[in-house]
Backbone:
């Protein structure tokens, strides 16, 4: 009979060892043994095995005692009573001698590695049924931080084993149909990094809400990462676009959200942690601020959204939220500003810069603003923002679309302004669309197609300017059917905005899978009356 191996160093573990040491410890082993040569430093550690847990259950009849308590639950006993009884069974007896000796020997090796007699370690629970495709046990067991010395280590290990039977864990396994004694628990022991002196956080290797795989999401706050994982702090959040990260010339950080980060967890004496309220200034805690002492442990059932991630694994997506995987990346169409003069005038500070127009709908709006002296600088800011997104962030699937273009001459003038700002149609894959919302856009579709890569039909304005009617389902369907007869070379033709729900143009004919977004800001300081619009359509 093969002897039981009670502990395994992280260096010997990988993602295929989930059944042996649980999901968390297998994930810690993966970067430890695969990324060291790349300069990724993972603090050393070890994991107890599922076989060692089975040996614990077979000591002094513990397995049968646990089963009797579960039977009591099925007979109607209260969950909290059963949970407390099972946990007390684990804590009332010492760990089996082989497991105890192996854990202490591995801890001594960590001490020798660090050069300290009693190094601080994190003691984490890792269930063998953790992060399965059909169920997630993440956050149901305990983690103990800043554990120092052999005695404290053994106590923390025992409490981790007992935490496999928290009330929450028992209830979840009951609802999911898991056999309580078929799920094993591994304990991970890892040297701690003094992040309480700086900051820590969680890395998701994809978007945890949507499953979108091309971004990495980092949540971070001051101190130990406990407050971030438990959801007790409002952290900073950084979203990194992976394709752009491959090019050193690009800035891959596409979104930064600054949190308050008021709470900070740090080391305390005797192996405890303390939580400090940093206050709104984010600086040192004020003198005399209350500090709450508590055991150095955390779970993820606190208030606020838990942030649990795995390096080199999919993150633990909360099962109470819909996990909708996004389709593959597709072009994003950004429509430049198209507010009317009366709408701009209602904005803060807008009145002195906007003319009074009897009919703003056919006034100084859309493309006519972009090259006029009264708004040329404002449109330049829009162009610079678009160029930054495409050229600095590497999001070259962004398509520019400008609205309400009356004439071919107007199209040429706007394209010239864009080129002056570094947005040249065709360079670096740049496509430029136009909103087809004026009868001239439809009548001169072939000529406009020589200047643009695609059309989005704006049925609201087009309906009013063509038939002097409000938009209706019948009129929209008639107008959108124009897409079927679009001349060759027009590029993608599709509906815009709310009219999409009425579109009768088949997807194969519309050819556009693009998403649309719009800019609605008015850059401060841009002003001036419109230039006379007397140019004729060529």
Residues:
């Amino acid at each position: 009979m093969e002897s039981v191996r009670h502990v395994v160093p992280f260096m010997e573990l990988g993602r295929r060892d989930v059944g042996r040491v649980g999901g968390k410890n297998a994930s810690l082993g993966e970067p430890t043994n695969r990324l060291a040569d790349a300069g990724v430093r993972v603090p050393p550690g070890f994991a107890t095995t599922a076989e060692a847990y089975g040996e614990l259950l077979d000591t002094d009849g513990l397995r049968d005692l646990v089963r009797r308590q579960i039977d009591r639950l099925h007979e109607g006993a209260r969950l909290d009573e059963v949970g407390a009884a099972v946990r007390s069974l684990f804590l009332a007896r010492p760990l089996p001698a082989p497991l105890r000796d192996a854990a202490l020997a591995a801890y001594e090796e960590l001490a020798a590695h660090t050069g300290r007699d009693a190094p601080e370690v994190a003691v984490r629970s890792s269930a063998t049924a953790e992060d399965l495709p059909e169920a997630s046990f993440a956050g149901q067991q305990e983690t103990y931080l800043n554990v120092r010395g052999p005695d404290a280590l053994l106590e923390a290990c025992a409490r981790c084993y007992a935490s496999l039977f928290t009330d929450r864990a028992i209830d979840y396994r009951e609802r999911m149909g898991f056999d309580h004694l078929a799920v094993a628990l591994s304990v991970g022991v890892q040297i701690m990094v003094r992040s309480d002196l700086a900051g820590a956080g969680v890395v998701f290797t994809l978007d945890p809400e949507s499953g979108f795989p091309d971004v990495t999401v980092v949540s971070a706050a001051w101190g130990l990462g406990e407050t971030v994982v438990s959801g007790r702090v409002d952290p900073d959040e950084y979203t990194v676009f992976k394709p752009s990260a491959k090019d050193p010339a690009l800035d891959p950080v596409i979104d930064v959200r600054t949190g308050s980060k008021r709470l900070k967890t740090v080391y305390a004496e005797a192996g405890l942690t303390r939580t400090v309220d940093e206050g709104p200034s984010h600086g040192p805690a004020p003198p005399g601020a209350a500090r709450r002492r508590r055991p150095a442990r955390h779970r993820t059932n606190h208030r606020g959204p838990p942030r649990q991630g795995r390096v080199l694994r999919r993150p633990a997506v909360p099962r109470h939220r819909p996990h909708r995987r996004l389709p593959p990346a597709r072009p994003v169409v950004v429509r430049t500003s198209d507010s009317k003069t009366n709408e701009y005038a209602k904005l803060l500070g807008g009145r002195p810069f906007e003319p009074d127009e009897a009919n703003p709908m056919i006034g100084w709006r859309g493309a006519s603003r972009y090259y006029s002296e009264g708004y040329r600088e404002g449109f330049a800011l829009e162009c610079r923002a678009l160029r930054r997104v495409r050229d600095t962030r590497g999001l070259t699937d962004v398509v520019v679309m400008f609205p309400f273009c009356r004439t071919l001459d107007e199209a040429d003038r706007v394209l010239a302004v864009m080129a002056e700002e570094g947005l040249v149609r065709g360079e670096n894959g740049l496509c430029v669309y136009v909103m087809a919302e004026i009868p001239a856009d439809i009548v001169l579709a072939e000529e406009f197609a020589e200047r643009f890569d695609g059309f989005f039909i704006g049925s609201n304005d087009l309906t009013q300017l063509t038939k002097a009617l409000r938009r209706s389902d019948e009129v929209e369907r008639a107008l959108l059917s124009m897409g079927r007869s679009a001349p060759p070379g027009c590029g993608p033709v599709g509906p815009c905005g709310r009219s999409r729900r009425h579109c009768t143009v088949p997807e194969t004919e519309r050819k556009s899978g693009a998403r649309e977004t719009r800019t609605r800001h008015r850059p401060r300081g841009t002003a001036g009356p419109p230039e006379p619009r007397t140019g004729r359509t060529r």
User: Anything to note?
Assistant: The first strand starts at residue 7 and ends at 9.
